[in-house]
Amino acid sequence: MRPQSLFLLVFLLGFGVVANAQLNNYKYIIVPKKFKDYNVENKHQTSTNLKFLLVKNGFNVVYNDRLPEDLADNRCLGLLADLQDDSSMFTTKLTVVLRDCKGVEIFRSREGRSKTKEYKVSYREALMEAGTSFEGLNYEYTPKQERAEKETAAEKPIVVSFKNDVKSVEDTVKQSVVKQVATPEEQSFESKEPKTSSFKKAVTAEKAPEAIELLYAQPTETGYQLVDSSPKVILKLIKTSVDNIFLVDDEVKNGMVYKKGEKWYLEYAEGSGKKLEELHIKF
């Protein structure tokens, strides 16, 4: 590996660790329903698409007019998301910026670009590209007190003691599996036999391939429409600049269809979370 490439790799890895550590300090990300540079709410679906991308990457996202009680009482629990729009006449250019309650910039994504002529699609593509900066951060909110305890524990020296490490045969024999006391004054029974686990293996909601309805992809001007055997249009897909990734052209479902391995999946926002469905598509 060339020295320049190695340096770049080390820099990116280091940046990811620092960004992850900073973002873990915040419980929420607040997405405005109208960004300061736009004159209407959810212009080109920027607010809903940004929330979808952040939720997809594990963040707890809320709109600025629906703050939970703890965030309303303590605004510094969350980061405020903003969009830096540097679009030109022929190219949409978007950067996601996260700032704390004092307006200090905590995180800045890469610049996402799209040259698609249709604004709605172009803004979604640019946001999707900018959103790749959040992938692999493994965000997990850590409360301030818990962080302090972890830091204190990390500073303490590790003490290793070998005292009483080897026990005598007599002590070993005295360790009984079952302890029973049965006298008129005291009656108890303490069993150290392994208990039957109450853990149940999770049942996945994924359908067997033969149970998934086959959808047929019919080409359109912007991508494909998926129809069933009726035929009835189930979903409309919009092509992106990335192979095997399509945007969902639907007023209800805000998400994407993509291929992973040999399978196709529909991933979309639902409430404050996300939903994943496997699709069986024949192109």
Structure description:
This protein is an alpha+beta fold. Among the domains are: 123 residues, Rossmann fold (3-Layer(aba) Sandwich), CATH 3.40.50; 74 residues, no CATH class. 24% of the residues lie in helices and 30% in strands. It is built from six helices and 15 strands. The strands form three sheets. A seven-stranded mixed β-barrel has the order 9-10-11-12-13-14-15. Strand 14 and strand 15 form a beta hairpin. The longest helix has 21 residues. The N terminus is likely disordered.
Mean pLDDT across the residues is 76
CATH class value of the domain at 12-134: Alpha Beta
**What is the number of beta strands?**
15
Which geometry do the CA atoms define?
A: globular
Largest sheet: 7 strands, mixed, barrel
How would you write the strand order of the largest sheet? 9-10-11-12-13-14-15
CATH architecture designation of the domain at 12-134? 3-Layer(aba) Sandwich
Strand share of the residues?
A: 25-35%
Report the span from N to C terminus: 40 Å
Which stretches are low in confidence, meaning pLDDT under 50 for 5 or more residues running?
3-18, 172-184, 195-209
Based on CA atoms alone, the radius of gyration comes out at 27 Å
Category by helix and strand content: alpha+beta
| Number of helical elements | 6
What is the name of the CATH topology of the domain at 12-134?
Answer: Rossmann fold
Residues in helices, as a percent range: 10-25%
Q: What is the string of helix and strand elements?
A: HEHEHEEEEHHHEEEEEEEEE
